[in-house]
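tool_call: predict_structure(chain=1)
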Amino acid sequence: MGSQLILFRIIALLAVVIGLILIYSGLTRQQLDQPVFYLPLILVPLLAQDMYFSLNIDVFTFLFGGLVINRMFYLWKEPRAKKNWFFLSVAVILTLWVKATGLLILGVFGLFVIYLGIRYRHHPSLSKNIFLNGSLFLPLTLILSSPWYIFNLIRLDNLVVINNNLQVGLPQYPAKAISWANIVEFVQAFTRTLFRGEFIWHGHYFDVLPLWANDIFLTVIPLGFFILGISYLFLPKQAVEENGSTTFWQKFFLLAGVSVIAVLLFGYFFIGEIPYYQARMAFCCLYFVTFVFSAGWLRVFKERKYSLFLFPIILLAYNLFVMFKLISEVIYHI
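tool_result:
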């Protein structure tokens, strides 16, 4: 059993590494050299390992999510090529086949089609071709991904979420009423899940910081950088970069990240039943979410060399603190 766990752990780590490599190769192929594109690739390996790199299928949603991003770069380069549409569609289908919450990546696919078509609005024939291909491949992708969701509907009476009819002892999370207190709860839960994970120790989340420190380090500071990242969408357009790939991808990744968070917020208030506020639900779109944070971080610290590694060093120190604290707790209870 021990050797099997080690093997499965290696496979899980390998899936994440390949996903990162796929994104990295797409960025370099597109010759995007701005730090904001690479900071998320540094952050992802430093996020809570118990949540992201443990033995679960979430690692494969990240792998295929990375493949989706990689194929988007190919489609941006040659939007008329049917093979690029086909391979992007396959990447999305694989993501949805792994886990029902991969449905988020289908929305990103649709957003990409719209944004790509608008990008080529000054070339009517090409823009029309993009929307025609999108209207063909989006429904096709949905149809080929549907067996998982049909199975859920038959077995669980719901396309995506677990409901009360499935008696496996899982907690239920009813939809929340819209209020300031619940918005605060959403932000706290989302940012803490993103950076701390959801490791449970003696029935409670394993927190190594006092409550006030959690509020500052795991909620207030990340929220500030997320807001700054979102503000990038409203900056004046720069004529020099208007037709360049840098502006296109910066705006698209920001739009995708904001849209994913908005969907989670919508589910938190109107759907419920599972913890939509948790970053695990958006693991296939983790690059987009961390991109929003990275954009805010680099807006404050600019693109200086140290700024690319400052927050990763802070996050690494926090992770080491968590590790030593957990080891001490285990030794104490032996």
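agent: The mean pLDDT is 85. Proceeding to next step.
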